[in-house]
Amino acid sequence: xxAQLPLAYGTALVLIVIILLVNLLANALRKYxxxxxxxx
Length: 40
Hints:
Blueprint: H1 5-39
């Protein structure tokens, strides 16, 4: 059981990082496209 803990924490950490990156990317794209739409 103890041997599996680092793997579980690593997997959870990677998932959290991926979710944060996706959220940041989505926010950036939304702002970018809002600017593009306002300019047109």
